[in-house]
Structure formats: C-alpha cells, structure tokens
User: Which sequence fits this backbone?
C-alpha cells in the first residue's frame, strides 16, 4: 500500500549543513530553516506579550536578521544543537535588536515565506495559556512542527484515500483498532490491514528519527534529541 519513495537508508544531511548553505546566501536553505522553525519563534514572541501582527513582524524580521547580520556564520555545531542556538539568538534579538519603526524593512521575507498565523493561533487557543517558560514553549512548538513535518512526509508516501483511513491508527492505543472494520474500508483482508498499520507506524517512527537527525550534528545525539522531543510534548 505504501508508495515506493526510493529513499536510501542513510544518515541524512544535518540541519547544520542547511545552516551553512543559508549562511552562504542560499535562499532555498534559508527558506527551509524558516519553514521548520518559524512557529516556535512566533510562539515565543506571542508568549512575550506581543500581539499577532507584532509577533509576525518579529518572526519575519528575525530570520531576515540571520543573514543581514551574519548570525548564521557564527553558529557552531560543536557548541550545541541548532534549536538551542536559534532560541538564544531570538531572545537576544527581541531584547536588543527590535525597533518598531523598522518593522516594514525587516519584513523582507513576507513574500518568500507567508506565515500561517491562523494555524499558529489555533494551536495557541487549543493548548491554552500553559505555564511554560519561553525555552519550554520553544521546544514544544519545535516538537509539534517536527511531528507535523513528519506527518506530511508520511502522507506523501501513501495514496490520499488510504492515508486518511489509516492515519487514526498512528495514535490509537493497544486494542483500540477495529481491524475488521479497517479491512472493510480498505477493501482487503484483516491480515492485510494489520500489515498496513504496522508498516505505517514503522515508517512514521523512521521519518521522525530522520527529521530529528537533521537537527543535530552527530548521529550519536539523535536518541537524546528524540527523548527531548517526547519530553517537550508531555
């Protein structure tokens, strides 16, 4: 049922390689970073008390500053995880760099990266005002963004109809899946349905690991980062 992707089972390029490309001025690499991390950054800005438009300006402006001031060039993977570097840089940006009168100038990424603030605000509303520190909030939004990216990749590897039928199985607990009904909806046997669920879950776990691996410089850090991801979601 799953599509053949042709993906090799190798350790993927780390997010730090994307950072290097972005620091060299590669627009695609910068956009990749923005799409992966804008939601955590935006959430921290909202948590700091800024309204939607100001938080949006801060988020757009921060990523523009990464290139304008050469901050990415100072990023060193030997000093820690990229998300830690990014969270610290944004905190400094909000304290030292933000001036309202420059909002229009710093919104240069608006055309390159439209922010779905509606989605971000819905997440905020669903979770409510949880008593989280800016650091914990950033990590939680990072984890949610990473899982969302993994889910999007997973969906691309299945037919749309099959994926919509099977997707609830990803979060179903032991004994909660009605395989007979699932088989009926898929148009196959119960055994085939069990195999499909197993493959879906296995592939989802693999994709999550791949996405986490892209955010660290050394493969030995992946397990620690996976634990950090799970802890951020508690």
Assistant:
């Amino acid at each position: 049922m799953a599509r053949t992707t042709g993906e090799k089972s190798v350790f993927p390029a780390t997010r730090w390689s994307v950072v290097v490309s972005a620091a060299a001025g590669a627009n695609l690499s910068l956009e990749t970073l923005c799409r992966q991390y804008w939601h955590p950054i935006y959430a921290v800005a909202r948590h700091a008390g800024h309204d939607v438009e100001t938080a949006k300006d801060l988020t757009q402006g921060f990523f523009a500053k990464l290139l304008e001031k050469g901050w990415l060039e100072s990023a060193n993977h030997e000093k820690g995880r990229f998300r830690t570097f990014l969270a610290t840089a944004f905190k400094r940006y909000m304290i030292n760099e933000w001036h309202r009168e420059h909002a229009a100038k710093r919104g240069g990424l608006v055309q390159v990266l439209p922010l779905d603030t509606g989605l971000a605000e819905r997440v905020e509303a669903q979770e409510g005002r949880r008593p989280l520190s800016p650091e914990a909030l950033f990590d939680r939004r990072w984890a949610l963004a990473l899982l969302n990216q993994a889910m999007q990749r997973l969906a691309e590897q299945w037919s749309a109809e099959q994926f919509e039928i099977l997707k609830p199985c990803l979060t179903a607990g032991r004994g909660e899946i009605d395989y007979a009904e699932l088989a009926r909806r898929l148009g196959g046997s119960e055994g085939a349905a069990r195999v499909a669920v197993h493959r879906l879950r296995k592939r989802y776990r693999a994709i999550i690991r791949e996405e986490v691996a892209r955010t660290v410089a050394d493969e030995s850090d992946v397990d620690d980062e996976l634990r950090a991801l799970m802890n951020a979601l508690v």
Notes: The chain has one domain: 15-232. Residues 3-14, 107-112 have pLDDT under 50 and may be disordered. The radius of gyration is 20 Å. Residues 190-213 form the longest helix (24 residues).
